[in-house]
Design brief:
By secondary structure, the protein is α+β, with helices and mostly antiparallel strands. The chain has four helices and eight strands. The chain has a single domain, classed as Alpha-Beta Complex (endopeptidase fold (from Nostoc punctiforme)), CATH 3.90.1720. The chain is globular, with a radius of gyration of 13 Å. The termini are close together.
Length: 132
């Protein structure tokens, strides 16, 4: 496979993920019609854009793919955070320029945020690269 075509597919996946901004959060949700929780959102984007099925929970997703250091991040990599007093309890998609897109919590909507924001920066657990 041409590495550029893989990068293009991942860029398309990132653009699709960002296009879902403002979709409501819904616990257990995994479709644009019903809303998404964090892992449902990531799973939907990877399935829809790349044909890749991911495990259902952020903790399970954190066990697959290639572990990365923060300085290795590329658009489409998955970023994990400790939001429930346990590592890998939240997942989002890195979109470049220090930002990620995710479905944060009940009562909110999918949005883009900076990883350097105090809340996210202090809760960063790690990153994984998933290859199709």
């Amino acid at each position: 496979m041409n590495p550029n075509s893989s990068d293009e597919k991942m860029n398309d996946a990132v653009m699709y993920a960002v296009s879902l901004a403002d979709t409501p959060y819904r616990y257990g949700g995994n479709s644009p019609d019903e809303g998404f929780d964090c892992s449902g959102f990531v799973g939907h984007v990877f399935r829809h854009s790349l044909g890749i099925s991911l495990p259902r929970t952020s903790h399970e997703i954190s066990k697959i793919g290639i572990a990365l250091n923060a300085d290795q991040l590329r658009p489409g990599d998955l970023v994990f955070f400790n939001t429930r007093q346990r590592a890998y309890s939240h997942v989002g998609i890195f979109i470049g320029e220090g930002k990620f897109v995710h479905s944060p919590k009940s009562g909110s909507r999918i949005r883009v945020e900076k990883m350097s924001e105090k809340y996210w920066g202090s809760r960063y657990s790690g990153a994984r690269r998933i290859k199709g």
